[in-house]
Amino acid sequence: MFSYQFDTPTLLILSLFIACLSLLAAAHALLGKRDSKAALAWVAFCLVIPVYGPLIYLVFGINRTSDKAQEIYPASSPIDARKSLQNPEAARQHPMSRVGEAVTGHGLRSCDDVKMLENGEALYPRMLQDIAAATDRVYCSTYIFQRDETGLQFLNALIEARNRGVDVRVILDGLGGIAYPPVIGKVLAKSGLNYKQFNPITLLPPSLHVNMRNHRKILIVDGDIAFTGGHNIGDRHLVQKPNNPKCARDLHFRFTGKSVDDLERAFLKDWLHCTGETGAAEFTPGNSQRSDAEIWTRVIMDGPNENLDKLNDLLVGMLALARKRIWIMTPYFLPGLDLIGALVSAKLRGVDVKILLPERTNIHLAHWAAQHNLRHILARDLAVFLQPAPFIHTKALLIDDEYTLIGSANLDPRSLRLNFELGVEIFDPRLANQLAQYFAEKLAAARPLSEPMLDAVPAWMRVRNALAWLFSPYL
Question: Domains of the chain, with CATH numbers?
């Protein structure tokens, strides 16, 4: 057997190199990790296991998502030539409105009307009707666009609008567009529509990022109407469709007024990224800010290209201001310790905290991880309710009697740190009451989660759930 004997000087140099490598990796983990437990684990790993520890940290321990996102997706936006960021003079939104203003640097926008639309049965006909009436432009961005009956209806509507001379642009996420067949990307391209993929998945050149996905759902019609919420485009959201076992219930919202300008700017920002254009194009808004509006909104764009976790920070701040109730509905619930702390604090103040989750999610790993985490949630005396099938995909937060937060984000690390997401704050007592009724309806059909229910889970499943939970930052 071949062996090589190092002389003493070589061994000394090699030992010093290994020691320096371990120290550099440990220092990087110490200075770069947000969580002290993660930092301690990686520091120990790099120091205790020479060579292999630093190499494993180099591959798996360094979070490159934020740096890569800032590199490929600059934070600049289309410039609003008639910017109007002041808060309304009315004081009823304060102090709640100040949290979002501090997080984003933007005040509230007036909204003429906002309509809540449940499931594809209510949403899709309204969207298709507005597309059919478009005369100037239709901008559509979605995570999933399936080639089924619903998807083909939208495809035909967009083609007909393009044939009328309407400026039609479509953004489809590069991963979401292929992860849920039947896919429609090639059909969109062959139809001649102005279609772009957001961070496409390619082998050559290699681009296989499962992070940095565009999870936003936006439809803009003529700059006068905007839709956003949790719906993708496909038959899955048709709850009443026969033989549709994987259907998903959801909410979407239709806006008119100044709010539309901010949603259009959000789309155009993504469009600039998809086309590779640099800088910030000027955008002239078509809606006026009304000082007498009854409804006020704020659009919040969040993503790994931002230095702050805007939606997470907003949630922590808003939960701290709740005085009456915090009702949460989300399909995936893996909150960080800061959000759990804010919910516990609200509970101790006497706030009615209710968390509505689906009994079963459509992503196994996320479901298993959440099941493990729920034990810690219940231990803090937070009320969790499980909604029976069909799967609830709704993402909505209701605080007190006026504030709602809707959009594309789930309450998990993927949405709050790794995806490009969009949220809309809505200050409107009427909508809050409507959403409260929606929550109450779903609560009536749900069952409260209890510790005996979790204890009844077989031991091997609890181990599986705990192992899945270890990977929760990436689910």
Answer: 8-62 (no CATH), 110-291 (3.30.870.10), 310-474 (3.30.870.10)
Residue 466 burial class via C-beta count within 10 angstroms: exposed 0-12, middle 13-18, buried 19 and up: middle
pLDDT profile of the chain (475 residues), mean per 10: 63 83 85 74 83 78 62 64 51 80 91 97 98 98 95 97 97 90 88 92 69 92 97 96 92 97 94 81 84 93 80 96 97 93 96 96 87 91 94 96 96 88 96 97 96 91 87 68
> Per this entry, what is the length of the chain?
475
Distance of alpha carbon 229 from alpha carbon 224, whole angstroms: 17
Q: Hey, how many other C-beta atoms are within 10 angstroms of the C-beta on 406?
A: 26
Residue 433 identity: N
CA distance 218 to 301: 12
φ/ψ of residue 220, rounded to 5: -115, 130
Positive or negative torsion for Cα 317, 318, 324, 325: negative
Cα separation, 396 vs 404, whole angstroms: 7
Provide the H-helix boundaries in 133-249: 149-163, 176-179, 185-190
The whole-model pTM stands at 0.87
Residue with tokens 């709050």: 416
- Cα-based torsion angle of the residue sequence 432, 435, 437, 440 in order, rounded to the nearest 10 degrees: -120
Query: With contact defined as beta carbons under 8 Å apart, do 248 and 236 qualify?
Result: yes
Q: What is the pLDDT of residue 204?
A: 67
pLDDT of residue 28: 86
- What is the per-residue pLDDT for 167? 96
**Residue whose C-alpha is closest to residue 110's, from 127, 93, 88, 131:** 88
**90 three-state secondary structure:** coil
